[in-house]
Amino acid sequence: GAVVSQHPSRVICKSGTSVKIECRSLDFQATTMFWYRQFPKQSLMLMATSNEGSKATYEQGVEKDKFLINHASLTLSTLTVTSAHPEDSSFYICSARDYRTRLNTEAFFGQGTRLTVV
Amino acid sequence: SQQGEEDPQALSIQEGENATMNCSYKTSINNLQWYRQNSGRGLVHLILIRSNEREKHSGRLRVTLDTSKKSSSLLITASRAADTASYFCATDAWVTGGGNKLTFGTGTQLKVEL
Question: By the CB < 8 Å criterion, does A14 face chain B?
Fold first, then answer.
């Protein structure tokens, strides 16, 4: 299957700082990338959908000014958590799809980023 | 919002037994997918079943889909301790404005004991 690389896998930051998480599709071009958040022992909650070259579409209740998403190329999307607070501590996971060729196939997921804000 | 509800929330079985997990959803779908997640890790795709399919097999996995009841089940046969993980169903559907969206169920935590 296709590979999606997410970096960093773990990050600890101080309250008030910003953190950037990268999601790269290594062997395919991702027309669309998705960002999820997962709390301990809970399901994945979709935060936003980003299409290459256009603004991200955020799910209801997700602050777009706090969670900045950029999808500048077909292989890279970034999520920046701005002015992070302890309540932003969570597991963030990206996934990628190529709608041009994989309309009815699985999404490919990164390994996730464990963010801890202290 | 959660599309899928899974049951049971937690399942503990002995190695060699079969494990069955169920998923119910609410809207029309293009396909339904099952994923596995080990603690603190990313998701691994297990199997995809299209809306016009009723059953699919992959190794020790068997998935059924009943679109009239909006439900799916995942059966893991001859379970192993290494199957211990959380299992999620995810429904794939078109959304207004274009594109597909995967919406995950609540998950089943499976523990296989020796």
Answer: no
A49 vs B99: CB contact, 8 Å cut-off? Answer: yes
Name A61's Cβ contacts closer than 8 Å, sequence gap at least 6: none
A29: left (phi over 0), alpha (psi -120 to 50) or beta: beta
* Per-residue pLDDT tens over the stretch B45-93: 999 999 999 999 999 999 999 999 999 999 999 999 999 999 999 998 8
- Kindly list the residues from chain B whose CB atom is less than 8 angstroms away from the CB atom of residue A44: 43, 88, 104
Collapsing DSSP states into helix, strand and coil, what is residue A55?
coil
Q: Residues with Cβ < 8 Å from B27, sequence gap 6 or more? A: B3, B91, B93
Show the tokens assigned to A28: 């395919």
SS3 for B58? strand
Site from B34, B100, B106 to mutate, A interface, most A CB atoms within 10 angstroms: B100
Choose the closest CB to A49 out of B33, B42, B101: B101
The per-residue b/e assignment along A104-116, b for 16 or more CB within 10 angstroms, e otherwise, is: ebbbbbbebbebe
Tokens linked to A25: 């599709």
DSSP state of B27: S
Using the beta-carbon criterion (under 8 Å), do B107 and A42 form an inter-chain contact? yes
Q: Flag if B104 and A1 touch (Cβ within 8 Å).
A: no
pLDDT at A103 over 60: no
Query: Strand pairing partners for A69?
Result: A79
